[in-house]
Structure formats: structure tokens, C-alpha cells
Backbone:
């Protein structure tokens, strides 16, 4: 009897993980848009439709972005008489199902937000105690993505709370990508693969190059503080389970060069590429950055290895990312306030990633070099790599073995 009970418990514990693997969701980092960075809780039906239209008109859908995610503030302040969540009738007068259907009609997928606590971070009804009921409602609406936050969670165990919602989502029978937004406080990279498809590794991002903005008990972080905050987590990331460095701030006030670096690093780190700007007013330069298919291809590489910092000399950082088929991507980032000229000799700078076991074999192979922002070839690894990199800008290249 004891043996039989143990088998049953084991099966129940592994059922959610098995179902998750069978879904084959997020085999490359998810790509999409989230409302929070720009709009906070000031969201409505027309905004969703406008953003969905922009996905198509600006070429974002064709570039690979497919999830349109509504963050906090979409629901009414109270559940209905049956304790179901209700879309705010002023913001969404036709209900959420019609909004979801519109997004789907554009060839996109729809994402929604809630929280493991009794209330969301903005004070709306959370899912604590209603996980299965809420998951069922999302599935009925046709939701494809759930971002699940971590506010108002006193006395909750993080891993257990996310497991409950994971199992609730799987019980619906609908494949729903599960985005864990626990901020890294309980090291979700160590257990996140069992529970979801991506997990936040930090608190909220803010639109600056290198800053920290306090909010009392917590702080928002700029691009570089987020990149440098966590150590030794790259081994936990890979196909179907990703370290999430937060929604992007590309197009939200940094310089064009800094936006390029930001986008480059999220691609190199194999982070989900979730836009956070107002697509309706995005500049040409912003869209050119966000739709750069050569950079996106690095992020979406099937090998799924997160980049590592190969060299940090203060004014210049070099990041390296092994790719499938023996290829590599490199980002030379100018951290200084002046332009930098590089004269990089591949033979004198051996590259080996101990985690993946991959090496850049320049002594017995030749690699052609591709500049991913200027879309031009830069010779081969038999030559020195010469370039001038502007202030807070990047040279991003791809190395492909010459056959």
C-alpha cells in the first residue's frame, strides 16, 4: 500500500512537468509586446487593437513577434457573483473574449496578467485561492500566455504557488505559455523549468543605460545593472525554459545607440524579446532596431545557449554566444563616453565556453564575419577585426565557418 501511494504521489508531481514538455512551447525565447512599461494600468480595448494593428503594419509580426500581453489593470476591482474575474467594463466594454479574438484575427497570440497573491501589484483581484477557476476562464477566452506576478504573497511558498498555477493551466487542456514574474528573490532559475517557460531574474527595468531608481522597499534597474545582477545563472537557461531579463525599454527614451546595445544584449542573453514601447508612435530607428532579423536570429538560435562575458576591460566589454552549426555571435560594447577603435586579433584571443564545451577554432578553421547592424561582411577571422564603435554603441557580429 505504501509503495502504491508513493507511485501515485510521484505521478501527480511529475504530471505538470510532463504536460509542459509535451506542449513544446517556447523552444526559442518568446517574442512579443507587454503594456506595462509604457502604459501601466492605463489600458483599454482600443489600445489593444491599435497595438495588434501595429504588429502587422510595422512588420513586427513578420519579424517574429507574436505575443500581445496585457499587464496589470485589465480587470474590474471585484469578482462577479460567481467569483469569476471580470474585465473592467469601462476599459473593455465588449468584454475580453472579443479583444482576444481580434488579436488572434491578426495572426497573433494573446497574453494576460495576474498574480499569485490575493491582490495584484496594482491592487486588483489576484489568483490566490482561485487558480483553477481563473485558468479555466483564461482558456475559455483563448488566452495563450500568462504572466504571473508575486505581490501580496505573505506566507506563500514561491515554488509551490507557481506549481499550483502551472497545474491549473495544464488542467484546462489549452497550451498556455507560463511566465513566472517572481523577480528572482527565490532563485526561480533553480526550479523554474519545472513550473514554467520563462522566469524573471530581477525586479522591474527602467529606461536608462546604467542607473538604479529607488521606490522605498524596492528599486528599478537600468539595462547594465540588470545584466550584471545575477551570476552563474546561464546554465539554467535553454530551449523551453529561459532566464527573463524583463521587458525591453527600446524606444522609451535612451539614445539610438543605447537602444541598439540593449536589444543586442537581450538577444545575446537569450532573453525573451518582449517590447515595452508605444508602437503607435515608434520612430523609424526604433523599428529598424526591433525588426533587425539578423540580430533576432541570434536570439532565436536553436542551440539556446546564453552568452557570457568574454572580456571586461572597463571601457570595452566583449560578450560571446555559441550558436548552432559551429557559429558564434559576439558583441563588442563601448561602455565609455568616447568613441573606441578596436584592432582585434582572433589568434591572440582564444574563445572557449566551458559550460557548453564550444570553442572558436580559429587556428584550424576560418570564419567569415558578418556585421549584423550594418548588414555587411567584414572579411574573415584570418584578419584582424578593425572598427570604430561610438559612445554607448555596439559592434555585433556573427562568425560562420568557411566551408
Residues:
Amino acid at each position: 500500500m505504501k509503495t502504491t501511494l508513493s507511485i501515485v504521489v510521484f505521478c501527480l508531481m511529475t504530471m505538470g512537468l510532463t504536460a509542459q514538455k509535451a506542449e513544446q512551447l517556447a523552444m526559442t525565447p518568446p517574442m512579443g509586446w507587454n503594456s506595462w512599461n509604457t502604459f501601466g494600468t492605463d489600458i483599454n480595448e482600443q489600445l489593444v487593437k491599435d497595438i495588434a494593428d501595429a504588429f502587422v503594419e510595422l512588420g513586427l509580426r513578420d519579424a517574429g513577434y507574436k505575443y500581445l500581453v496585457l499587464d496589470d489593470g485589465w480587470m474590474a476591482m471585484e469578482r462577479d457573483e460567481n467569483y469569476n474575474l471580470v474585465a473592467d467594463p469601462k476599459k473593455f466594454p465588449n468584454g475580453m473574449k472579443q479583444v482576444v479574438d481580434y488579436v488572434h484575427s491578426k495572426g497573433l497570440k494573446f497574453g494576460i496578467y495576474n498574480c499569485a497573491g490575493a491582490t495584484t501589484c496594482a491592487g486588483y483581484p489576484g489568483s490566490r485561492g482561485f487558480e483553477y477557476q481563473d485558468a479555466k476562464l483564461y482558456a475559455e477566452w483563448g488566452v495563450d500566455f500568462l504572466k504571473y506576478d508575486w505581490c501580496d504573497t505573505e506566507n506563500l511558498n514561491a515554488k509551490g504557488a507557481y506549481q499550483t498555477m502551472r497545474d491549473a493551466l495544464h488542467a484546462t487542456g489549452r497550451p498556455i505559455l507560463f511566465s513566472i514574474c517572481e523577480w528572482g528573490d527565490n532563485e526561480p532559475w533553480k526550479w523554474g523549468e519545472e513550473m514554467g517557460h520563462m522566469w524573471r531574474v530581477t525586479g522591474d527595468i527602467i529606461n536608462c543605460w546604467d542607473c538604479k531608481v529607488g521606490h522605498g522597499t524596492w528599486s528599478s534597474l537600468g539595462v547594465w545593472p540588470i545584466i550584471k545582477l545575477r551570476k552563474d545563472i546561464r546554465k539554467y537557461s535553454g530551449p523551453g525554459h529561459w532566464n527573463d531579463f524583463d521587458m525591453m525599454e527600446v524606444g522609451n527614451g535612451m539614445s539610438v545607440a543605447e537602444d541598439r546595445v540593449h536589444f543586442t544584449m537581450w538577444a545575446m542573453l537569450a532573453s525573451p524579446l518582449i517590447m515595452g514601447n508605444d508602437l503607435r508612435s515608434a520612430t523609424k530607428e526604433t523599428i529598424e532596431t526591433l525588426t533587425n532579423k539578423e540580430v533576432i536570429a541570434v536570439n532565436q538560435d536553436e542551440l539556446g545557449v546564453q552568452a557570457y562575458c568574454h572580456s571586461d576591460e572597463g571601457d570595452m566589454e566583449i560578450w560571446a554566444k555559441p550558436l548552432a552549426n559551429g557559429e558564434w555571435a559576439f558583441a563588442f560594447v563601448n561602455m565609455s563616453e568616447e568613441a573606441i577603435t578596436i584592432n582585434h586579433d582572433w589568434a591572440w584571443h582564444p574563445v572557449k565556453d566551458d559550460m557548453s564545451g564550444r570553442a572558436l577554432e580559429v587556428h584550424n578553421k576560418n570564419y567569415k564575419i558578418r556585421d549584423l547592424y550594418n548588414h555587411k561582411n567584414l572579411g574573415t577571422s584570418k584578419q584582424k577585426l578593425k572598427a570604430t564603435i561610438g559612445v554607448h554603441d555596439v559592434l555585433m557580429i556573427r562568425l560562420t565557418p568557411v566551408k
